[in-house]
Design brief:
heterotrimer, A: 12 helices, B: alpha+beta, 4-stranded antiparallel β-sheet, 16 helices, 23% strand
Amino acid sequence: MTAIASGSTELAERGPLRAALSRLVQRKSAVFGAVVVIFFVAVAALAPLVSPYDPLATNFLAVRKAPSVAHLFGTDEIGRDVLARVIYGARASLLAGVVSVVIALGLGVPIGLVSGYAGRWIDGLLMRITDAMLACPFLILAIALAAFLGPSLTNAMIAIGISAMPIFIRLTRAQTLAVKVEDYVEAAKALGNPHSRIILRHILPNILPPLMVQATLAIAQAIIAEASLSFLGLGQQPPAPSWGSMLNTAKNFLEQAPWMALWPGVAIFLAVLAFNLLGDGLRDALDPRRK
Amino acid sequence: MRWITRIATAAVLAAALASTTSAKTLRIGLAEDPDLLDPTLARTFVGRIVFASLCDKLFDISPDLKVVPQLATGYEWSADNKALTLKLRQGVVFQDGEPFNAAAVKFSIERHLTLQGSTRKSEISAIKSVDVLDEHTVRFNLSQPFAPLIAALTDRAGMMVSPKAVQAAGSNFANNPVCAGPFKFVERVAQDRIVLAKFDKYWNKDKVHIDRIEYRPIIDNSVRLANLQSGSLDLIERVAPTDLPALRKDPKLQTATISSLAYLGITINLANGPKADNPLGKDARVREAFDLAIDRNAIPQVVFNGEFTAGNQWEPVGNPYYIKEAPVAQRNLEKAKELLKAAGHPDLVVNLMVPTTQEDQQGAQVLQAMVKEAGIDLRIQSVEFATSLDRAHRGDFEAWYIGWSGRTDPDGNLYSFVACKAPLNDGYYCNPEVDKALDESRSTNDPAARYQAYKKAAEILIEKDRPIIYLFQRKWIYGMTKALEGFTPYPDGLIRVVGVDLK
Amino acid sequence: MLAFLIRRLLIAVPTIFFVSIIIFGLQQLLPGDPALALAGEDRDPNVIAYFHKKYHLDQPFPVRYLYWIDDALHGDLGQSLRNNMPVGALVLQKLPVTLELGGIAFLIALLIGIPAGILSAVKNGSAIDYAANVFALWGLSTPNFWLGIMLILLVSVDLGWLPASGFVPPTENLGENLRTIIMPAFVLGNAVAAVIMRHTRSAMLQVLSSDYVRTARAKGLSERTVVLHHSLRNALIPVITLGALEFGQLLSGAVLTEQVFTIPGFGKLIVDAVFNRDYAVVQGVVLVTATIYIFLNITADFAYFLVNPRLRS
């Protein structure tokens, strides 16, 4: 008991980031999540080296073959290797998850910062628009946007990113409001610092932790959103693979070729679960009061 | 413990009672939700399935595409083919009790021709006026001879509505349609079900063994099938060919198939806007090369489990108007490559607009793999269906992977697509020779003469110009419970409930 | 108190206004002439022209918006372009269906999420905590349309216990209604269960370490009493008010669930309308949804306000 206690005091002296990291590592589920995320990222990055076949190579003689030594995950409806498509599909699905959230952050955080910092009528206007966006069901917004932009992976990412933006606006604004009244911000203002400097140097770094947590959780949601859009035919288009579009095709062959659905489904589940666990772990680690 | 026996007995009694007094309800699963239930305004194929039970027509077709009497018992063309006299069936009443007579026919036809937004007008626009000769005889006066008219009268344009009901309901007729079919309208819950009940004064009521029909639109193929397999539905239409083996293995179910009039092809943009300025649109040799690079059997084989049939025309192989002198060509990669080289495009790139529907995407991918072997780089542009309609209309495409649900008369499968300035001619193809042949086919009622006219058109369309490259014809595939008897599939894909029984 | 309520209601008005602009604007930007989509296969030019005139489709965006807003304020949300049914009637027909689906889904989410959250908090850090976490997260990590299809295959086709799809209204046959709604509600409730579990867990953790509970324990009350009687009530308050906020989540999930199980509710109505370019339906439905959501939010805030005296200052 004492050893751990003194250990953590030492770490705390070294800096809050190190402390957070150590808390994160101690939580087994978060570690599991991180490991799985890294695994998927590695697989996606090294796809050409890891994949046994070209994911686009068709073989009309080997249509819907069950898993075997030659095709570990079986083949799909026009003879392509499912394992290869799951591996390359990781690229599309992970990209969809990350890029969507980057878009949501890139748009949402600045708006939230401005809204929270400026206050008054700017804040009122921006919040009304944000509320309006939040009042539209997320998936409907994404579907309408994706239909407007046209069915493609890129457009799905943009659609999901825009639909997820309001959550980040809200979060950033709430955090900005809380931090705005802190002493160091008041001090910076008193010293005559320009607004942009106060926002970027004093406010933003201090609101990063909850944003990181939300971002990680949002990646999980975005991967599912991509799968949902693909299910409706609005995401990644064939022949390029993504886990969601593979599920969309597979649903027509559930009885004849269940392996077509099983592996992408498992992949989505693991990836999303991992991001969720990681996000939860980050939340607990960055907020010591909760333990 | 006694209460258990009491409940059990009650349950058994209730079940016994239920089985003797329950109406025979036929639960049919449709692949889409029908639009308006008004024959004059309706626009979808799936709506016609409901109409088959709700609204009788002047004529119907037999499974081998012959015209048979329904509300009309016979017809006669005048010598100049510009007047059509119909003899009407006697003793027929509409579902609201009103008598069916020549006046009702005149009313219905005039409604088709004049109602704002009528989608029937172009089908029977040749009719100039309708004369009531006597209570059961009516004459259509045409502005010019029009052979496909009879075929039009076997579809929605021939559906008769009760004048009294129309006048009472006005624009609300679609929400409570009144026709002269074997089943009358009971209720509709949008996207959930349409319920019809047996019309006890139907003229052919002895052949009607079902008391009630429930149509349930279920868009997802696997869910529709699951409903059939679990017993929630008695009959489903448009079963995916890849699901047939599972259906055939199920001891509680049976299947029925028939070759359909529906086809799928590639429409090429020849002159509609700037996008037509591409090798495929400009050079007939390139189109021929593309045609020759395709193995017509591949898509039916790979995507449709071998069920659908390869085709190269707007009529299926075996149809009386299939031009036997222009048979399906064999794949010829050598000739394709030669033609491409001669045309100066050995590395051809084709942008194919494909709707996001599953089977269309799969078919396009098979095509992509096939033509690659001739050096053609086929790029698939996935476009949502509604958007693809718009883009085709505006000419924003090079080639379009699209089908047609098929009409009984060959004119319905051809004219609107290849005649100069016709409404469905998105590629803006125009060849006066073809138009002349098509007009000939319309002006005579003699099948042999019409065949010759279509043959002339085929020689140009199939072997020279190739504005549309036809790929395959579908089959209508139905799944149903073994308890269903008397079901006959028809090439037009409609479900006719008269004669059907549930044991 | 009254001032707070009035202020919130006033704020709701511009929000709803913005919702209408966003959704109208989005629709107008959708490519594809709806008249073409409506005119059906035969695409008769006369019919297309007729639709252009009837629905003002050749007018510029602001004009169309004004036509629509004017009608809407008079209670006329227009007609479905596809089958001429009044949007208002469609809404009244389908909203109860989705509400029932959402309601039962939320109930299931509570039944899964709250016990999981309590267990997780009470046995914090142990394997049970971990397992409960994963179990609830499973709902959040599986695409619900996927889960739906797998369940249909297993429960309806293989086992034959429940109908594969469709919906029977409770007024028609309560037993059948429950049978048709239980699977989709389960699928829908899974994701929300995770959120509820998390909130219950963190609320419980906070309460369990509070002075109030320490006192109860010191008094010698059994752990059971401490957990159930003292902590749970306080922990549940934020969870219940979460219900209003989760409505939006539920509706998003309902969109796909209704598609898979063919439940004729709001979600299915919207998706079909977007693909059919049935503008009037999309606008009307989203407006109604957003309005309900906004008012639920106000109610939730109000309830939270009432229940938590500390906030009243």
